[in-house]
Amino acid sequence: MSIAADTPLRRFAVDFLRSPTAVIAGLGLLAIALAAIFAGVIAPQNPYDLAQIDIFDGSLEPGSEGFNGFKYWLGSDEQGRDMLSAMIYGLRISLMVSFIAVSSAVAIGMVLGLLAAWRGGTVESIIMRAVDIQLSFPALLVALLLLAALGKGVDKVIIALILVQWAYFARTVRAAALVEIRKDYVTAARAAALPPSRILFGHVLPNVMPPVLVIATVQVANAISIEASLSFLGVGVPITQPSLGLLIANGFDYLLSGRYWISFYPGVALLVTLVCINVVADHVRDILNPRLQR
Amino acid sequence: MTALLSLRALSQTYVSTPDLAERMANLAGAKYRELRVRAVNEVSFDVAEGEVVGLVGESGCGKSTLGRMVVGVETPSGGTLAWRGATLEEMTPEQRRQWELEVQMIFQDPFASLNPRMRVEQIIGEAPVVHGLIKRTERRDYVAELLGKVGLGADIMSRYPHQFSGGQRQRIGIARALALRPKLIVCDEAISALDVSIQAQVLNLFEDLRAEFGFAYLFISHDLGAVEHIADRVAIMYLGRLVEIGTADEVFENPRHPYTRALLAEAPRIDRRGQDFTPIEGEIPSPLDPPPGCAFHPRCARATQACKGAMPELRAGRDGRRTACILEHGEQP
Which residues of chain B from 165 to 184 reach within 8 Å of chain A, CB to CB? Predict the structure, then answer.
């Protein structure tokens, strides 16, 4: 390997590939993400196309065949929808909602956190007190209240998740940026009279990204579970666009009558997704933690 | 000819006001007060074009703060700072820009002073492109030329800072400062974090660059040997104030202020092996609560009752030497 190729990204990749657990979780996450993105191609059935589903195939057990020979690997729900397909589509909604919400929250939190660290004084006080207030309420409660006010809808869930999560990023970015801004390379950039926006986004931001990345990964998992909880509670995504959480809620009524698969498999999918994300996040955190670095 | 840089009664006071929680505690009877630190206290001197001024003092005496004000990273709380005759207040935007670019800084810690996520080419070449000194397409050649000036090869351009030793990093930092074609370079303890063998190399590099470009340096250091070697004039600071200033020969051969004497007496020298060191008594006082009168009197061997009275000004004493000591001013009873 030539020395010139030894970029921070490359070192990161080498470190990441060293842990088998992380690689497996990473591959799992990749598979889940691909399945969600290409749901239309992969899923055996479009469970929301009424022409493709048959009410007479309702509540079939996993592995049974329908009237037209369609194999229901994970069973069907009472409407006759293939659970596997419904899960893949549900995964797509869950991942999309959480990904959009977290990336927006990162963007908002980052700008506010940098602003607080750079300006200090009143600006910092206002931003950070807002963060404190935000973080002193349980996320689910805030989301519930917001959704009660905003109403249902995928966009509303995304807004609620952004409002719940921006504060984590603002706090992290401010703390990391305060450390970086005191370093001499920032003083050098100021001595060179570079514009503040350039210093903040060109110099400080890349150096505060590691902790933000770690928190972002954890928060994606968090967002998925909050969204699932909201949908389960009936204030989340609409019934026409069911996420994993809503699928679990739909099957919940049939659990006691023995038709476990309607809730169970979406639950497993949710669990596997969260575990994969968390393992990857844990490992990323270990790599980026300077105290653990060789 | 007007001096390149002139400081008049330049001061920097840091004020820490009680925050909201502390103010609320005050209502309940707590006693949080406003804290004031006079980090730099009415410092006046000039730096002429091409001149090297050494600024010496203990840790915490305000010499770094002074340096940061000179490069414009901090705004002085009092006094005036003038560049090419124009003070900060009366500068036109054009003059201000000229000041910002013509004064650059070299730092103590070669590990913190380079952005770890930028390649050498960007570290050195960013600011000149932003300020329009060179075009983006000329950047590679420009950076290569600067690297040559500081004794590094152009082949390192695409590397990251962590791939270099302390001395190499310091050279990159110097090249970054050179990139803006400065007239004055503030060296804030620029060699004290380096190995002794590297220190000499970097010090020689400073001298070579000065000979080539005619820079003025404000050389902030506690290394008296290095200052004696490089400086034309030397200013001694104690607790935010200038206590003595004079040519390097004068100050080093015949120090006048008791603090300067004590400082020089304790500097290890190769021609005085086996000397006994008698440390200056006591600690540097807290700048939060400086002693009345001359700030050095609690530690001064020659202090008299009068020293506790008024703060002595920096002015010419008996034979024209400028010190801030009433004993030198010839006013002792």
Answer: 173, 176, 180
Judge whether A261 lies within some domain: yes
Residues B80, A195: Cα–Cα separation, whole Å: 24
The SS3 of residue B247 is strand
CA pair distance A25, A31, nearest whole angstrom: 10
Residue A85: inside a domain, yes or no? Answer: no
Q: What is the pTM of this model?
A: 0.82
For residue A146, give its domain range: 92-292
E runs forming strands in B17-93: 35-47, 52-56, 78-83, 86-87
Domains of chain B by range and CATH?
A: 5-243 (3.40.50.300)
Closest Cα in chain B, distance from residue A118 (Å): 13
**Which residue is closest to A5 within chain B, CA to CA?**
B159
Among chain A residues, CA nearest to B132: A194
Output the six-digit token pair for A58.
């309702």
Residue A60 in any domain: the answer is no
Burial zone of B235 (CB within 10 Å; 0-12 exposed, 13-18 middle, 19+ buried): buried
CB pairs < 8 Å spanning A and B: 72
ipTM field: 0.86
Residue A209 neighbours by CB distance under 10 Å: 18
A225-282 confidence digits (pLDDT tens): 898 888 888 888 888 888 888 888 888 888 888 888 888 888 899 999 999 998 988 8
Answer yes or no: do A207 and B126 touch at CB < 8 A: no
- Say how many domains are in chain A: 1
B49 in reach of chain A (CB within 8 A):
no
In a domain, A197, yes or no: yes
Structure tokens at A236: 């989340």
DSSP secondary structure letter of residue B288 = T
Where residue A150 sits, what CATH number does that domain have?
1.10.3720.10
